[in-house]
Structure formats: structure tokens, C-alpha cells
Amino acid sequence: MENLFTEETAKQIPYYLQKLLLQGRKADALRLLEKQIEADGGLFEDDKDFKEGKRISWLLRIDLLREWNRLSEALAWTCLECEINPTNVAAQALKEQLKRQLKLVPAKTNTVKTQFQPTLNWDGVAGMRELKAIFERDIILPLREPEIYELYKVTLPNGVLLYGPPGCGKTFIARKLAQVLNYNFREIKPSDLGSIYVHGAQEKIGKLFADAKASAPCMLFLDEIEAFVPSRSGFGMSHSYQAEVNEFLVHLNECEKNKILVVGATNLPNLIDPAVRRPGRLDKKIFVAPPDLEARAEAMKLYMKDRPQTEIDFIQLAEQTECYTFAELELIVNEAAREALGNRKPISTETILKSVLKNKPAHNPQLIEKMRTAVDEG
Ligand SMILES: Nc1ncnc2c1ncn2[C@@H]1O[C@H](COP(=O)(O)OP(=O)(O)O)[C@@H](O)[C@H]1O
Ligand SMILES: [Mg+2]
Predict the structure, then answer these.
(1) Which residue from 173, 287, 326, 333 has its CB within 8 A of the most atoms of ligand 1, so it is best to mutate?
(2) b (16+ CB within 10 A) / e for 210-220
(3) pLDDT tens digits for the chain (378 residues)?
(4) Ligand nearest to the CA of 189
(5) Residue 250: alpha-carbon gap to chain centroid
(6) In terms of CB atoms within 10 Å, which end of the chain has fewer, N or C?
């Protein structure tokens, strides 16, 4: 790859990186990331996505080095970043953690943080490397190293909005995040409140937040959040639910102070009252895309476990199933298994590929890109 990155090549990085990792080509994977980190973006140098791509590559490099237990190298890169870019608070926080992990400084004592594991345990999460890196930078590090963030006067996260197509892991990853943070987890769906827009809903909402506060530190997960805080223009509402929506907003303002992390999830971000996304409320929005290459390969491996099979080419299968959701991948494997059973043969790559051809995904790349950018426009 050339040194001059275009928007298109930059977008391909996650795909090539994941492929190299699936093939076990660690050195090549690091080299690819380094190329992007050092890349000259030309006309794109100031582009928001280009810059973010570089930052993510930087995080991924540190993450891989940690995963491979090359902690001193990770620390060296982190120290370099702190030198070059002293306002990178996440790098400062990572540096402190790595120093403690390497026992270069004593572990934190007398704080709740001592119960945290030194490395993040995302076991059972297939793929999603970028999402995990963003969670670490934007949520986990600030909550674990608040002193550093206070020093730099960077506010701690109050809440996050996860959005994206259904069946792609929003609920799943929110639960995992609570585990990684070692936070209690409270989940509510619109159906748990009955209709929140009936008499007494305001008290119910108050009780919900009070309960979360009592179990702090706590993640309050609001699934299908658009139903709790609908925008006035959405839903074609005949009656204003502003009192209930305001009740939510008031409580959202208090969450950070009360050690409650609010995570909202939605497939329909445009139907949320925009006031929810104001600073101090759910001010971070994170797109949860359909499973990436690694996630697809790992998920299919999981679905194939303990089934009679020939040697399966999971990389090829993952390459042929872009845009498929987890549920769609599972269906494909189940169908291939049924077909193989009918023929009294072990499942082969070909059987699965046949099933892929028969079952088209509900989404396509254009649709997904439109969903990703919908919130900015809306
Ligand atoms: N990273 C992942 N690794 C393995 N399984 C996953 C992952 N993300 C999601 N899943 C599985 O995919 C299915 C759909 O995920 P879910 O969180 O319910 O999607 P959403 O909330 O976005 O509609 C669930 O069965 C979940 O266990
Ligand atoms: Mg869900």
C-alpha cells in the first residue's frame, strides 16, 4: 500500500487488518497499522474520519501488543504518543495503567479500582476490535482513571447511545461493557414500564433511576430508548409526552454524579428526542455495525462447534458474508447442517456457501453507511 492514503484505502484498513489477524500474520498486521498511523493523508489530512481512523489504528496497535503480552513495547509507543501529543488524555491514562501492569509503579490502593482486572476481559465477544477500542478510550479509561481526566479538565462520560441495525450486538456488547467495568447492570425495555405514558409513569421513571443510584456504580441500559424519549415529530404522536420526556432528561443530567452510566440502544436513532443527545446526557454516540470479518469467522466457528464437518475455510466464509447479521449467519449454518444431514455427509465449506447464496442479507453496504451517518444529519 502506498503512503498516500485515500478515503477509500483508509476504509479498507479494518478489513485487511482482520484478515491478517485471522491468518495469524501478526508482524504484517502491526505494519499495516503503522502505515496508517504514519500516513500522509494529503487532501484528507484534516478530514474527521481520516483523523479518527488514525487514532483508532493507534489504539488497535496498543491493544494488539497488550493481547500478545508485549507490554513494554505498548508502553514505549504510549510514552512516545504522550510526548508528541500531550493533550491525548487517553494515552496518558493508558501509560499509567501500563506502568502499573509492568509493576514500574505500585498498584493503586484504597480505592474501588483495585478490584479491576489489569487487562480487559472481553471473553466471548467475537471481533468488534474497533468498538472495544472506542469503548476503552471513551468510557473505560475515563471511569478507571478519573484523576487524570480531572487534571486535564476533561469531563467523564455521562452516557452513550449505541445505534445501528438490529441483531448486530448492541444489547450484547452493553452487557459485556458492564462486566468489563465491573458495574452492576440494570436493563429496562419499554415493555417493563408497561406503557410509560400512562398515569404514574413519572414516578416509575424516578424509581428506576433511584434504584440504579442505590446499586452504583451501575450501568443503566435503556433498550429501544426511542420509546422512552420519542422526538415530538416522530411516532406521529397525537398527544405530547413532554412531561415524561422531561422527567427522563432531568434524571439523565444527574447520572454521572451518581455513578450511573446510562447506555441507550436504538435501531431508530432519528426517532429520539434530540434533547437526549445534548452535552451531559447521552453525549457520545457509537455505531454498532454488522459483524466484521473476524466476528463473522468466529461466530460461524461457534455455530459449527461439535457438528460433523470437513476442514472449513472460515476466512472464505467470512469474506462471502459481508453485511450478514449474527442471526442471519446462524440461520445459514443451520440450513447447511440440515442439508448435510439429508445427504448423510459432514458439513463442508461448499454446503455453507450454497446456503449463503440462497439467503440474502437484509442489509447492504450503502444502507449501512446511511444508517451510520443518519444521526449527524437528522
Ligand atoms: N461480538 C459478538 N460475538 C458473539 N455473539 C454476538 C456478538 N454480538 C452479538 N452477538 C449475538 O448476536 C445476537 C444479536 O445481538 P443483540 O445484542 O441482541 O443485537 P441488537 O441488540 O443490536 O439487536 C445475540 O444472540 C448475541 O448474543
Ligand atoms: Mg437489542
Answers:
(1) 326
(2) eebbeeebbbb
(3) 445 566 667 778 899 999 999 999 999 999 999 998 988 777 777 788 888 889 999 999 999 999 999 999 999 999 999 999 998 999 999 999 999 989 888 877 655 444 455 678 898 999 999 999 999 999 999 999 999 998 888 888 889 999 999 999 999 999 999 999 999 999 988 877 665 556 667 788 888 899 999 999 999 999 999 988 888 765 555 456 777 788 888 999 999 889 999 999 999 998 898 888 888 899 899 999 999 999 999 999 999 999 999 999 999 999 999 999 999 999 999 999 999 999 999 999 999 999 999 999 999 999 999 999 877 644
(4) 2
(5) 26
(6) C
Specify the 3-state DSSP secondary structure of 378. Answer: coil
Domains of the chain (ranges; CATH) run 7-151 (no CATH), 159-289 (3.40.50.300), 293-362 (1.10.8.60)
CB distance 125 to ligand 1 below 6 Å: yes
* 168 Cβ below 6 A of ligand 1: yes
Which grid coordinates belong to 269?
Answer: 436513532
Tell the residue nearest (CA) to atom 15 of ligand 1: 169
pTM higher than the cut 0.85 = yes
260-266/284-287 β-pairing? unpaired
Q: Locate the ligand 1 atom nearest the alpha carbon of residue 127 and give its number.
A: 1
**Which ligand 1 atom minimizes the distance to the CA of 174?**
17
Q: If DSSP codes are grouped into helix, strand and coil, which group holds residue 352? A: helix
